[in-house]
Amino acid sequence: MPEARVAIDLDVPGPTISRHLYGHFAEHLGRCIYGGFYVGEDSPIPNEGGIRLDVVEALRALDIPNLRWPGGCFADEYHWKDGIGPKADRPSMVNTHWGNVEENNHFGTHEFMALCELLGAAPYVNGNVGSGTVREMSEWVEYLTRDGDSPMVRQRKANGRDEPWKVPFWGIGNEAWGCGGNLRAEAYADLARQYATFLKDHGDNKLYRIAAGASDDDLNWTEALLKSISCLGCGRDPKNIYQAISFHYYTVAGTWENKGSATEFSLEDYYRTLSKAQDIERVIRAHSALMDAYDPERKIGLVLDEWGTWWDVEPGTNPGFLYQQNAMRDALVASLHFDVFHRHAERLVMANIAQTVNVLQAMLLTDDDGGLVRTPTYHVFEMNKGHQDATSVPTHVIEGTTYDLDGKAMDLVSASASVKDGRALVSLSNLDPDAALSVVLDLRGASSRESSGRLLTASKPQAYNTVADPDAVAPVPLEVEPEPRGLRVTLPPHSFATVSLVL
Ligand code: AHR
């Protein structure tokens, strides 16, 4: 059996892994909100105020730190005032981006805030720049967060909510280079400054304002934003206008026209997908290096508020609903991203998987008869949740296995680790689709007094869960053996594992 050695510097504290790197995204898209999170109060499916309770229960196990809403592209055509007040009086609209379906606005501001409260997640509201106004966005902040008496507060109270909510995160539009307005970078950079100016902190609610950023490695976009709030070497504090810049990175292994199937794929597709997922590290490095030049004190955060796999929709489903299955391969895409996030936690402060339920790389797939499936990706989020707010520690794959992809050696072993409260959590992925791997964990700077392991794997990388077979891919215990230098585990092919240590 091939061997790998992973050295972990347990006594060399790195950056804190913000829990917000484990954030989520819920858009008015397909069956994410309607049929996913929200079924309405009259549904036979158990719900509270229309919110599905089985979905809430499953997601509570993930300790979701924040939830981004209402889009995505939808955010830039959403008018929040249409989504408050008695449901019967709420006007409808057409969701032009996603399926051209009618949106009845029954899930609006109050329902979203109730969902966040049920999940224990911090709200991340994304405002409308593309087709909205500065006033509309400014009033939304007032409606949500202002105390005392004001025009928006009176409306909120009339709609049944006396106390202001806390809203820590605010997005200034979405993908302004595309569905958010097809703007030039410089034009959006000015708009972001203008909108941010009127996104006020009311009382003790402090907004963390996030400008809509680049696609993938479009550094020109990021630089235009940086230039508009800072200047090379001038010492101006860049974080007075907004506090973070986002970017989006999807794992699309094929082309946008032919993205491939979530469950029917070749080994070649498998390697290409995981290689594309690994490339997130190059993209984060590039954005970070640019930000370091303009913001050497790292006051501005980098936020990856959309990431995940994007496959062809499942046969027979609405192409505008982005409904896809989720296999063991998707779980490995997630684990690879998290290893990278942990390494770059100093600049990368937040990330949001797209999307939580029934859309793209979802945690949960639901049906209208009350069926609910936890996907392989769900299990990675659950197994990794101990990294939230822990201290990242240097983790080196000293000996590993590789695969020759287009003449380049692709790493087949990935790892990261963190420490918190006298415990360590190690995450390990064996990407080899055929060979098991014996891994020595070379523990440096501390020893383990007690250890336990968990393993996620499946009969094949294409395996996925269904209502009929919900645990085809589900975590099982993993044996952890002592070794002179630390510990040893055996990872089956295409597997993800976590090892918990008491130090
Ligand atoms: O997540 C689906 C869509 O992908 C979002 O609405 C948009 O921001 C991105 O292009």
UniProtKB/TrEMBL annotation:
Pfam families recorded for this chain? Alpha-L-AF_C, ASD1_dom
Q: Which UniProt keywords apply?
A: Carbohydrate metabolism, Glycosidase, Hydrolase
> Gene3D superfamilies under this entry?
Glycosidases, Golgi alpha-mannosidase II
Question: EC class of this enzyme?
Answer: hydrolase
Q: Which residues form the Alpha-L-arabinofuranosidase C-terminal domain?
A: 305-495
Q: Which InterPro entries match?
A: Alpha-L-AF_C, ASD1_cat, GH, Glyco_hydro_b
Q: Which GO terms describe its biological process?
A: L-arabinose metabolic process; polysaccharide catabolic process
Quote the EC number: 3.2.1.55
> What's a Gene Ontology MF term here?
alpha-L-arabinofuranosidase activity
Reaction(s) catalyzed by this protein?
A: Hydrolysis of terminal non-reducing alpha-L-arabinofuranoside residues in alpha-L-arabinosides
PANTHER family found in the cross-reference section: ALPHA-L-ARABINOFURANOSIDASE C-RELATED (PTHR43576), INTRACELLULAR EXO-ALPHA-L-ARABINOFURANOSIDASE 2 (PTHR43576:SF2)
Query: Of which family is this protein a member?
Result: Belongs to the glycosyl hydrolase 51 family.
Q: How does it assemble?
A: Homohexamer; trimer of dimers.
The name on file for this protein is non-reducing end alpha-L-arabinofuranosidase
Q: In which organism is this protein found?
A: Kribbella sindirgiensis
